[in-house]
Design goal:
By secondary structure, the chain is α+β, with helices and mostly antiparallel strands. Helix content is 35%, strand content 27%. It has two domains: 37 residues; 113 residues, Nucleic acid-binding proteins (OB fold (Dihydrolipoamide Acetyltransferase, E2P)), CATH 2.40.50.140. It has three helices and seven strands. It has a five-stranded mixed beta barrel. The radius of gyration is 24 Å and the shape is elongated.
Length: 153
């Protein structure tokens, strides 16, 4: 004697399979989004150990005056990013933006090494004299507030 599947059970099975498919798709999308999400940290936050050591992030601030050193290969450059409170050494291999200059705003994306050296995979410079990346401007503002609090004490 063969059993037949009732239409009600077929609908229930279809709903369960659809919900499972939606759940799996949502999990895959969220995982891809999380792995592509890049957080921003100021040099002070990096120096305090708040930045991840196992994944890429962005660091922003000002290129410290006198810190830009170009290697003989013409592509490798090292410089220091500061928020006026703390400074982080950065190395980058590639062509820098035309507007990259000492004393100007910069955001670098990359990873922090165990030696404290930030190895950038991308460097972004400010657009014009009046523009600074919002993350870098906020980091400088926070560092200035922190220093003013220390001086007042």
């Amino acid at each position: 004697m063969g059993r037949t599947v009732k239409p009600r059970h077929k609908k229930l099975l279809a709903i369960v399979l659809a919900l499972a498919g939606i759940g799996i798709a949502t999990a895959l999308i969220l995982n891809a989004f999380r792995s592509n999400l890049v957080f921003f940290f100021s040099p002070t936050e990096v120096a305090e150990g708040k930045a991840p050591t196992d994944r890429a992030f962005r660091i922003g601030g000002l290129v410290e005056d006198g810190s830009v050193k170009r290697q003989a290969d013409g592509l490798t450059v090292s410089f220091v990013v500061t928020d006026t409170a703390k400074s982080i050494p950065v190395t980058y291999k590639g062509i820098l933006p035309d507007l990259f200059k000492e004393g100007k705003g910069v955001v670098a994306e990359g990873k922090l090494g165990e030696d404290g050296l930030f190895t950038a995979t991308q460097v972004l410079a400010k657009h014009d004299e009046n523009y600074m990346p919002p993350e870098a401007a906020h980091a400088l503002e926070q560092a200035a507030k922190a220093q003013n609090t220390l001086v007042a004490q």
